[in-house]
């Protein structure tokens, strides 16, 4: 019964948060957003310029094997969209075509003038996928909290943090769209959960090998699953230090195997493999590009990119300040944090933060939504700190009101789109 209540509460939370975002201010100018804003009386959402590509690829996954297919590096997301959206589209086409023929999503491409239709089922399918991603994020977040807080924090505080977690810019811009952006919330939570799970269960290497391969498959959903590899290696080392080098090599090979198979298949089928993020934005590859020119060129570029990366912490910095403020308070009160399994929890949170921080620092392409990958880890860290403070539950109502205020601010503020 406890689990059912929490499941229903999570579903309601996701529903209420994203319904309220439909009432957020509309774009004042086409320059403020990419795509097409869909207004339905008093509510609306931005149909992002990337959405049509995802919908068309889900409608026809064969597009992935066309030359220079934009989403070729994310094939599983299109396949997922196909399997969820196709039954819905079939139902619409066969049962309600006469009634819904004028309600389909149509987007006039400014470049080609092509009118896209027959994809509303896939659009609904991606909304369902988004719902599932958020639900899994909340589910894993709660699992993490139960472990790192030793059940010392009451449910009001936990739900306040869940509220904050899914009420930010990522959910606001990505939920009512076909987008991989919600993995920005899921992946960091998943990485922390995997590390704690491997350590808690003291999994043997064979089990960890399976995890490495399955996590490698997730890279074909979205590139931000790449940081999972060092997290798995860290957790594996904590459980079995014998023959670690050989085990690490096997884990790495199993992790990259799915991507290697996909690249090989594309190369055989169409002659080459295309990664839009690498080709168009030189993500990660920029380091090699600059080093080929000169060490000085790399240094200048690295400095400029670092400044750009720091600028994307505009929103996240407030939560980082809260983290350090709580850290100072705990240290001043000499809280005993190195008890039970706290040492490994601290190492897990610090290591996962550093992995994601360095990964997106060296990416070479900087947006606030990408830096938001650090947000779930910071939230876990703050909750861990709160669990070390005596009588923290007395402030539960205040923390929940802060969460509501945070959501209202995000809902009523202009943008992002």
How many strands in all?
Answer: 2
The strand line-up of the biggest sheet is 1-2
Which sheet architecture does the biggest sheet show?
2 strands, antiparallel
The helix-strand sequence is: HEEHHHHHHHHHHHHHHHHHH
How many structural domains can be distinguished in the coordinates? 1
Please give the alpha-carbon distance between the first and last residues.
39 Å
Helix content: 55-70%
What low-confidence regions span 5 or more consecutive residues with pLDDT below 50? 100-116
Specify the overall morphology: globular
Strand residue content? under 5%
Q: Which class do the helix and strand fractions yield? A: mainly alpha
Rg, rounded, reads: 22 Å
Mean pLDDT, as a whole number? 90
Number of helices: 19
Verbal overview:
- This protein has one domain (2-412).
- The protein has helices at residues 2-21, 51-59, 75-95, 97-100, 120-148, 155-165, 169-174, 183-201, 205-218, 228-239, 244-270, 276-281, 286-293, 295-311, 316-332, 342-361, 368-371, 375-387, 396-412, and strands at residues 35-40, 43-48.
- The longest helix is centred in the N-terminal third of the chain and has 29 residues, at 120-148.
- The chain is mainly α and 417 residues long.
- The model is unreliable at 100-116 (pLDDT under 50).
- Strands 1-2 form a two-stranded antiparallel ribbon.
């Amino acid at each position: 019964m406890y689990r059912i209540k929490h499941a229903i509460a999570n579903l309601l939370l996701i529903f209420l948060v994203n319904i309220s975002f439909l009432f957020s201010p509309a774009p004042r100018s086409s320059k403020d957003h990419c795509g097409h804003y869909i207004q339905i009386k008093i509510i609306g959402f931005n149909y992002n310029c990337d959405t049509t590509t995802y919908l068309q690829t889900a409608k026809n996954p064969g597009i992935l094997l066309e030359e220079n297919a934009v989403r070729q590096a994310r094939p599983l997301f299109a396949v997922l969209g196909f399997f969820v959206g196709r039954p819905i589209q079939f139902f619409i086409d066969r049962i309600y075509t006469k009634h819904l023929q004028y309600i389909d999503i149509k987007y006039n491409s400014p470049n080609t003038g092509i009118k896209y239709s027959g994809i509303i089922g896939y659009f609904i399918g991606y909304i369902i996928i988004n719902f599932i991603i958020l639900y899994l994020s909340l589910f894993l977040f709660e699992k993490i909290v139960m472990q790192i807080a030793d059940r010392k924090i009451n449910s009001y505080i936990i739900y306040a943090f869940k509220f904050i977690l899914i009420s930010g810019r990522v959910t606001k811009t990505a939920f009512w769209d076909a987008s991989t952006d919600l993995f920005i919330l899921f992946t960091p939570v998943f990485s922390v959960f995997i590390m704690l799970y491997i350590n808690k269960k003291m999994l043997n290497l064979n089990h960890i090998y399976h995890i490495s391969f399955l996590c490698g498959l997730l890279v074909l959903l979205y590139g931000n699953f790449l940081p999972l590899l060092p997290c798995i290696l860290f957790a594996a080392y904590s459980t079995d230090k014998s023959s670690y080098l050989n085990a690490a090599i096997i884990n790495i090979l199993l992790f990259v195997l799915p991507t290697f198979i996909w690249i090989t298949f594309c190369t055989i089928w169409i002659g080459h493999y295309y990664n839009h993020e690498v080709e168009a934005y030189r993500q990660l590859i920029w380091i090699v590009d600059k080093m080929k020119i000169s060490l000085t060129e790399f240094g200048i570029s690295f400095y400029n990119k670092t400044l750009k990366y720091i600028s994307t912490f505009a929103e996240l910095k407030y939560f980082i300040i809260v983290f350090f403020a709580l850290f100072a308070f705990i240290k001043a009160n000499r809280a005993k944090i190195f008890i039970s399994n706290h040492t490994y929890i601290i190492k897990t949170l610090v290591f996962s933060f550093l992995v994601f921080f360095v990964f997106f620092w060296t990416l070479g392409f900087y947006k606030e939504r990408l830096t938001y990958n650090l947000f779930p880890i910071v939230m876990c860290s703050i909750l861990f700190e709160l669990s070390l403070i005596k009588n923290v539950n007395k402030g539960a109502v205040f923390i929940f009101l802060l969460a509501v205020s945070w959501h209202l601010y995000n809902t009523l503020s202009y943008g992002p789109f």
